[in-house]
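Revision sheet: structure tokens.
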Amino acid sequence: PVTLIEYSDLECPFCKSFHPSMEKLMTEYDGKVRWIYRHFPLSFHANAQNEGEAAECVGKLGGGDKYWQFIDTLFERTTSNGTGFALDQLPVLAQEVGVNQTQFKTCLDGGEFAAKVQNDLTEGSAYGVGGTPSTFVNGRMVEGAVPYEQLKQVVDQILSQN
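Predicted:
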């Protein structure tokens, strides 16, 4: 009954700190919430566009579980702020989560998902996203890396109305 659409940047320190709250929400509300992840690479985070494309390549090649494992691990390891995870390590990380490194490089180097990541950015901008993370909870925007309890309140409010 609850859909969360998060606009995020894989090099954003606030997104990195917010990610565990989203994971906790998914665990606590298993079967009641759906999380849709959209890329919103900020212009001053030089690696964010490529990292978004890399996540999409992993998803294509390995499926949803590998996609989330890649994002989770990238957030764990990046120091954030634009170039916190070396781009030359993306294929290594893809292989680590179980995706064929050669196929991954072909996908990433070919720019297969460049337009998709840019479309996410354009879509988010059209919906009023100006920074990351921005999360829409059944259409209601929650801006910033809000504390888990605040996010939980929004979800509980929606669930109580159903």
